[in-house]
Specification:
Elements: H1 2-35, E1 44-49, H2 62-67, E2 75-77, E3 84-88, E4 92-97, E5 101-106, E6 118-125, E7 128-135, E8 143-149, E9 152-161, E10 163-166, E11 179-189, E12 194-196, E13 199-201
Antiparallel strand pairs: 1-2, 1-11, 3-4, 4-5, 5-6, 6-7, 7-10, 8-9, 9-11, 12-13
């Protein structure tokens, strides 16, 4: 009898684990489809701030996050209101949009993201609206990969925002998880020069 009960417990745990794996696979598939620019025209871009599946959201929001359109309010495209590009080079990408979005990616030109990379973005948590300014504080994580063609730039990037500040209160946040940010762009007109601190970079 005890052996049968043990087998039932093991079978139940296996089913739970299998269900969890299927959820992760479905979430990952949705994520890849969201960020795909296959067939998109030049000048297209998309980025997604990833809110954790099981935290910073109400329980009833979890199914939509897994099976539906996950957090469209944390996504930017070239069609987003006020979306505007600044510098576009293999070393730097600047992007702003209405609502408080402001992204600056700096890299060594070889795919490594520098710690000066930062991003400001809005986020709703439990029906309250915040605006965070965060830094990519670990240069050993993430990437900024680009390829040039006829004066245009294609690329993908992954950030991990860990050091955040509440823009309104000016206080550092505590207890928040890291926020991955994934993005891709296609055929963005490449800047000839970037001015930074009074110095011109080719």
């Amino acid at each position: 009898m005890r052996r049968k009960k043990t087998l039932l417990i093991i079978a139940a745990l296996a089913l739970v684990l299998a269900g969890f794996v299927l959820l992760l696979l479905r979430w990952r598939s949705n994520q890849l489809n969201t960020l795909s620019l296959a067939g998109a025209p030049d000048g297209s871009f998309v980025l997604q701030v990833e809110k954790p599946l099981l935290s910073l959201r109400a329980p009833w929001e979890v199914p939509r996050a897994v099976f539906g359109d996950r957090d469209p309010d944390l996504r930017l495209r070239q069609t987003s209101p006020g979306a505007k590009l600044g510098a576009v080079t293999p070393q730097r990408l600047e992007l702003t949009a209405d609502g408080g979005w402001d992204l600056v990616i700096e890299s060594d030109g070889q795919g490594k993201i520098l710690e000066s990379t930062q991003m400001t973005f809005p986020m709703a948590i439990s029906d309250r609206h915040y605006k965070f300014k965060c830094r990519h504080a670990d240069s050993g994580v993430g990437y900024f990969n680009t390829s040039a063609r006829e004066g245009k730039l294609d690329g993908t990037f992954l950030l991990r925002l860990t050091q955040c500040k509440n823009v309104v209160s000016g206080k550092n946040t505590a207890g928040l998880p890291p926020f991955p940010v994934r993005g891709s762009f296609k055929g963005l007109p490449q800047s000839e020069t970037v001015k930074d601190d009074g110095e011109t970079k080719k």
